[in-house]
Amino acid sequence: MGKRKSFLKAGSLYFVGNIFDKAVAFITVPIFTRLLSTSDYGIANTYLSWVSIITVIITLSIGNSFRTACVDYKKEINKYASSVFFLGTISAVFITIIILIASHIIHIDLQDNLILLCCIQSYATSIIAAIQWKYLIELEYIKRTIIQCLPNLIIIIISVILINNMEADRYLGKIYAYVSVNTFIALGYLIYYAFNGRTFIKIEYWKYALAFSMPLIFHSLSNTILAQADRSMITTLRSPSETGIYSLAYQFGMVPAVITATVESVWIPWFTKKMQNGEEESINKFSIPYINIVVLSCICIMLVAPEVLIWMTPESYNEGVYIIAPVVFARFLMFLASISIDLEYYNKRTKSIALNTIIAAIINISLNFIFIPRYGGIAAAYTTVVAYGVSFIAHCYVAHRQNPRLFGFKIYILPFFEVLIFSIITNLIMNYTLARWIIAMVIGMVFLVTTYKYYKRIKET
């Protein structure tokens, strides 16, 4: 009973935290789109996409190991954290030096200070991500919600202040805010675990972290490329201005991440506990309503998001409305893949996770090279759908081979076609606002009823 209440409290607080986090981001969209030109907005988002990529490699992705280390090293987790963070720091120093040298060898048109800021922010972000995994598995939901929400709120405030005091290169205001806030928080955690763990070099911990995380570098890097490469490629193959439009539309299309992040935050520790107890029937029972909640939220969001984008942004961004539906569909496919990936994580089959994601990333980049020069940002949205579709099928196949008793393929068929059909309908009736909003309200009611029933069923298990 106590553990069940913890899951429900965690889910409730994660939902509030995710809503607050995304609400702050969306409330500030009109501010940043007016403070920054489409070009500056595109450059800032391209920079952040590079941060996302470097974050994966700069500490060897050791933060992922907390997903199982919090179980295997539960009584000595502070020592484990102290040791692997020291390993990650050594890695960060060497990789930063390599990136700086490589930038001169291949003549990248970026200043050294901007590259250095990118590496520092990537290092800090990887430390914070590791802490978030620790809090998630330990059900430290209050701490996780704070570390999720507070930094972004501070970053937004500092960004606005800096941008308003800049005459040129105003995108730097946003960059400086991200670097300073994330670095400050990461240093706080590093100092805390250094004093409480007092273990810096322990080969057992390093081997454990690297064995789990090294294959995931390729998975995380490929996954990041899937999510971020579009923006860099649009900037290179088209223009920063078009990247700005795509980035904004992509942000609206990722609104379902509020729902998926919330349900995954409850699902992952619950799934881990059920697997440890051998309760596979219970997992299958709850996987269907788990998927349906995300289905309904995705459909509802893609129907109403175009007007929200138009209302919140200048007219120069309006053409991004046709990008939202395919991005939402891609996000849904990513969610479906995550169900199988959770099983692969539990079985510590990280090599298969990496291989499947690498294949999807290669497909995404290849299609981008072909279609972005011709069709621009809208093409990038649809190539992302194809790539995530391949990723979903591949991970589903591997998970079924690992455990045929879990997640039968038939549970995905109806949800897949529901979201696919509505993504097509949304763009076909784009000019019929009232019709879209009426459909969205009906689906929204179904979503609330479904969520309530799901909540009651969890209470009864």
Shape: globular
Q: What order do the SSEs take from the amino end to the carboxyl end, as H and E?
A: HHHHHHHHHHHHHHHHH
Low-confidence sequence ranges: none
> Roughly what percent helix?
over 70%
Strand elements, count = 0
Rounded mean pLDDT is 80
Instruction: Give the CA-CA distance, first to last residue.
Output: 9 Å
Structural class, from helix and strand content? Answer: mainly alpha
Share of residues in strands:
under 5%
Largest sheet: none
Number of helices: 17
Give a description of the structure.
The protein is mainly α. It is 85% helix and 0% strand. The chain has helices spanning 2-27, 29-35, 38-58, 66-72, 77-105, 112-137, 141-164, 171-197, 203-237, 240-253, 257-276, 280-312, 321-346, 350-375, 377-402, 410-428, 433-459. Helix 9 crosses helix 10 (240-253) and helix 13 (321-346) packs parallel to helix 15. It starts with a helix and ends with a helix.
Keywords:
461 residues; mainly alpha; 17 helices; globular
Secondary-structure topology with pairs:
Blueprint: H1 2-27, H2 29-35, H3 38-58, H4 66-72, H5 77-105, H6 112-137, H7 141-164, H8 171-197, H9 203-237, H10 240-253, H11 257-276, H12 280-312, H13 321-346, H14 350-375, H15 377-402, H16 410-428, H17 433-459
